[in-house]
TrEMBL record:
<dbReference type="GO" id="GO:0009249">
    <property type="term" value="P:protein lipoylation"/>
</dbReference>
<dbReference type="GO" id="GO:0005524">
    <property type="term" value="F:ATP binding"/>
</dbReference>
<keyword id="KW-0067">ATP-binding</keyword>
<dbReference type="Pfam" id="PF10437">
    <property type="entry name" value="Lip_prot_lig_C"/>
</dbReference>
<keyword id="KW-0808">Transferase</keyword>
<dbReference type="InterPro" id="IPR045864">
    <property type="entry name" value="aa-tRNA-synth_II/BPL/LPL"/>
</dbReference>
<feature type="domain" description="BPL/LPL catalytic">
    <location>
        <begin position="34"/>
        <end position="225"/>
    </location>
</feature>
<dbReference type="InterPro" id="IPR019491">
    <property type="entry name" value="Lipoate_protein_ligase_C"/>
</dbReference>
<protein>
    <recommendedName>
        <fullName>lipoate--protein ligase</fullName>
        <ecNumber>6.3.1.20</ecNumber>
    </recommendedName>
</protein>
<dbReference type="InterPro" id="IPR004143">
    <property type="entry name" value="BPL_LPL_catalytic"/>
</dbReference>
<keyword id="KW-0547">Nucleotide-binding</keyword>
<dbReference type="GO" id="GO:0017118">
    <property type="term" value="F:lipoyltransferase activity"/>
</dbReference>
<dbReference type="GO" id="GO:0016979">
    <property type="term" value="F:lipoate-protein ligase activity"/>
</dbReference>
<keyword id="KW-0436">Ligase</keyword>
<comment type="pathway">
    <text>Protein modification; protein lipoylation via exogenous pathway; protein N(6)-(lipoyl)lysine from lipoate: step 2/2.</text>
</comment>
<dbReference type="GO" id="GO:0005737">
    <property type="term" value="C:cytoplasm"/>
</dbReference>
<comment type="pathway">
    <text>Protein modification; protein lipoylation via exogenous pathway; protein N(6)-(lipoyl)lysine from lipoate: step 1/2.</text>
</comment>
Length: 356
């Protein structure tokens, strides 16, 4: 029998006001040798936060002026996936597990308990697309994954009482992503779960939702029967030191702003949205930067960018550059010719994101 350990992070409330620490938790449970088996933990943000995926362009995905005006903090996780808005009305669940050859990126497997729990509360939840959980065609959870060595984390959000107006104003998804979802705005695509709870559960609190989730997962009627590790002060001090060094570094969070003359985005089913910021001068690509919400978080995007720079702005030359950049290894199963088309075809121009 595989042991699942519940890690209680409630002792870290004073630390978790720092968004960087919340983003580092998964890495801690992946890399710390004291955690060898599967782990489940929950994270509830203390303040409104925009969390971007490791390969995303903060300047195009986020309305930074709005965030500054409304006190919304910006963070970047080590995992792939898209940008999400979270606040105290959101509960995030996260599993950390060992890769057995078929469970990494198996989002459906790790979403099962969330779906079961929500169905018991009257929510007709379902998994749709690559990594979304939805109800009534609207998204309440996006899932992402982070892998280090043979261990990985994967989890999702449970939006119960999130400020959807904040989410709509703060997030600016690329045009291609919105088209792929068949919607015109963030607000029309996402929803809180509260309206879908059946009458007996309309007033359920997030701690109560977490308790029900755990009882279902461990198949127990009492939380005292769950194998539990309570985080210590030493744990939190170690996490704070490591988290602030990387996840608290503004260079890591914000990245470098691009000032190219073109910005194209295209959604690829099963992979995600690929965004390419580039400049062409006298028929030659002089600069290129790749962004996206694809889940391959440790691909060598710089290798693709180096191959593109100096390439003639033609289909054959761009295709060859993407071949040399080993797209399958570094982004996912996308044909190099399809990415060449993305750069050449004006239908993929995402003008809203140029020079943001």
């Amino acid at each position: 029998m595989v042991l699942i350990l519940y890690v209680d992070v409630s002792s870290g409330d004073d630390y978790l006001v720092q968004p960087a620490i919340g983003q580092y938790l998964s890495t801690y449970f992946i890399t710390n040798p004291k955690f060898q088996d599967e782990v489940i933990f929950f994270y509830r943000p203390k303040t409104p936060i925009i969390i971007c995926g490791v390969n995303q362009n903060v300047y195009s995905e986020v309305n930074l002026d709005y965030c500054r005006e409304h006190g919304i903090k910006i963070a970047r996780r080590g995992a792939g996936g898209g940008a999400v808005y979270v606040d105290p009305g959101n509960l995030t669940y996260c599993f950390v597990d060992n890769d057995n050859g078929h469970n990494y990126l198996n989002f459906k497997h790790y979403a099962q308990n969330a779906i079961l729990t929500l169905k018991q509360l009257g929510v007709d939840a379902a998994m749709t697309g690559r990594n979304d959980l939805t109800v009534d065609g609207k998204k309440f959870s996006g899932m992402s994954a982070l892998k280090i060595g043979n261990r990985f984390s994967t989890g999702g959000t449970l939006m119960v009482d999130v400020d959807l107006d904040n989410a709509t104003q703060a997030l600016r998804p690329p045009k291609a992503k919105m088209i792929s979802k068949g919607v015109k705005s963030v607000h029309s695509r996402v929803t809180n779960l509260r309206p879908y709870f059946s009458a007996p559960y309309q007033a359920i609190t997030l701690p109560e939702l977490q308790t029900r989730f755990l009882k279902n997962l461990f198949e127990v009627s009492d939380l005292s029967d769950i194998p539990t590790y309570v985080m210590t002060k030493d744990d939190w001090q170690e996490i704070e030191k490591a988290a602030t060094a990387k996840y608290g570094n503004p260079d890591w969070v914000m990245g470098k702003q691009t000032h190219d003359t073109a910005y194209h985005s295209r959604h690829f089913a099963g992979i995600g949205t690929v965004e390419i910021s580039f400049t062409v001068s006298h028929g030659i690509v002089t600069h290129a930067k790749i962004f996206g919400d694809f889940n391959k978080m440790n691909g060598n995007l710089a290798a693709i960018e180096r191959a593109l720079v100096g390439a003639p702005y033609t289909h054959a030359s761009l295709t060859e550059a993407f071949v040399q950049g080993r797209v399958a290894e570094n982004i996912g199963a996308i044909g190099p010719d399809a990415l060449a088309d993305t750069m050449l075809d004006s239908q993929y121009a995402d003008k809203a994101n140029i020079n943001q």
